[in-house]
Amino acid sequence: MQSSVEVLRGDVPGTEYRFKVLRFGPADIAGPSAYLQAALHGDELPGVAALHYLIPRLKLAEREGRLAGRVTVVPFANPIGSGQVFFGEHLGRFAFGSRTNFNRDFPLLPSDDTSGLPGDEAPLPVEKRLKARLVKLALGHDLVLDLHCDSEGLSYLYIPKPLWPHMADLASCLGSEAVLVWDGGSDGAFEEAALSPLVSLPQDSPEWARRAVTTVEFRGQVDVAPETAEADADGLYRFLVARGTIVDAAVAPPAPYAGLAVPLENVEMTYAPTGGAILYHVRPGDRVRAGDLLCEILTAPGEPGGAHEVRAAQDGLILTRRSHRMTTPGDDLLKLLGTRRSTTAKPGALES
Ligand SMILES: [Zn+2]
C-alpha cells in the first residue's frame, strides 16, 4: 500500500487542507481498477467505517499477490466539509462559503483526459479546486464508488441508466434494498462526473458491463457501527472479487439481486406543509398505501387544528426519512419509493 497526502491551498493565507490517498497494486496492472471514496458529505460516515474494515483486506490481497487491478481509496474525501463545525453542530453537506452542495457542480468531462482541469494555483475557491482534484483522482478507474448515506434510511444505490442491470452484482453484494436508476442529469454529482467520459458510448457497447459508477447510500447518518461497517466492507470486497479486481477463490459469485430497482422519477419527495415538530408515523422499510398517514407536523400540540397531516401520494416503500424533528415549510420529510412516476418528479437531483 502506498499512502500519499493531497494538499489544497486554503482561500486565505495561513490555511490549507490535506487528505490521504491510499493506493494498492502497481499502476500498470491490467485488471479492472477501482476507486472508492467516502465522506464527500463530511458528516456521512458509514462509508468511512466500511473502509476501516476493507483496507486491511486490500492490504492482505496485495501482500498475497491477489490484486489483479489497482485500487485507490480516499477515506475522507472532503477535508473542508469534515472541518465544518458550527456552534457544535457538524454540517458537512454544503460549503459554508457558497452554500453549494459538496456533491454538486463537479466538472463533466468528455473523456478521461483531466489535463484541462484547474490546478491548485487557479484563482478559484478551494471547494472548486477540491472537486477538480477528486475528478483527477477518480477518472481512469473502471469501477468508481462514492460512499454516502442518507439522513435515516435503508441501504440503497443510485445507478445511471446505461449501467443497469449490469450493476445488479453490486446491489446483490451490498444487500441493497433498492436501486434508483437515474437518467439525464444529477446537477453535477460526483457520480455524474465519473460517468461523463462514458456517455457517448452506444447503449449496446460491451464496455458498460465492465464498468461501474454509483453513489452508495449506506443507510442513515447514525448507522455507524462495527456490525454494519464490517458487512458493508464484506459486500464491497465481494464486489471487487466479482469484477476481477481481487482474486479470491473462497468468495462465491453474487446471487441474483432480489431488491427493488425503480426509475428515479418514481420517488415521491414529500415536503413539510408548514413548520413545526415532525411526528413520524412510518419508518424506513415500511410499506404504505396511497392516503396512509406518513407523519404529522405539530404546530399547536393537543389543540384543534394543531396537527397537520402528511399522507402518502401513492402506494410504495418508505426509503428514507429525516433525522431531525423540527421542520420548516418546504423541507424534505421523506422519500417514498412509488410504483409509478411521481406527479411532482422534476429533472436533476432529488435534493438540493
Ligand atoms: Zn451524501
Key attributes of the depicted protein:
binds zinc ion, AstE_AspA_cat, zinc, N-alpha-Ac-DABA_deacetylase, 7 helices, 5-stranded antiparallel sheet, OB fold (Dihydrolipoamide Acetyltransferase, E2P), alpha+beta, 20% helix, 352 residues, metal ion binding, 9-stranded mixed sheet, Aminopeptidase
Give the bound compounds.
zinc ion
Secondary-structure element order, as H and E?
EEEHEHEEHEEEHEHHEHEEEEEEEEE
Taken from the alpha-carbon principal axes, the silhouette is: globular
| Helix percentage | 10-25%
Distance between the termini: 37 Å
Pairing-aware structural class of the strands and helices? Answer: alpha+beta
Q: What oligomeric state do these chains adopt?
A: single chain
Number of helices: 7
DSSP summary, beta strand count: 20
Enumerate the spans where pLDDT stays under 50 for 5 or more consecutive residues: none
Q: Name the CATH superfamily classification of the largest domain.
A: Zn peptidases
Task: Please name the CATH architecture of the largest domain.
Answer: 3-Layer(aba) Sandwich
Radius of gyration: 21 Å
Largest sheet strand order = 1-2-4-3-7-11-9-10-12
Domain Succinylglutamate desuccinylase/Aspartoacylase catalytic: 30-240
Pfam families: AstE_AspA_cat
GO molecular function: hydrolase activity, acting on ester bonds; metal ion binding
Cofactor: Zn(2+)
Task: Give a structural overview.
The protein is an alpha+beta fold and 352 residues long. The protein has 2 domains: 2-258, Aminopeptidase, CATH 3.40.630; 265-338, OB fold (Dihydrolipoamide Acetyltransferase, E2P) (Beta Barrel). It has 7 helices and 20 strands. The protein has helices at 46-63, 79-82, 126-138, 168-174, 190-195, 207-210, 226-242, and strands at residues 2-9, 16-24, 34-38, 71-74, 85-86, 89-90, 143-150, 152-153, 155-160, 178-182, 212-220, 260-263, 267-271, 276-280, 287-288, 293-298, 307-311, 316-321, 326-327, 332-338. The radius of gyration is 21 Å and the shape is globular. The chain binds zinc ion. Zinc ion is lined by residues 41, 44, 103, 148.
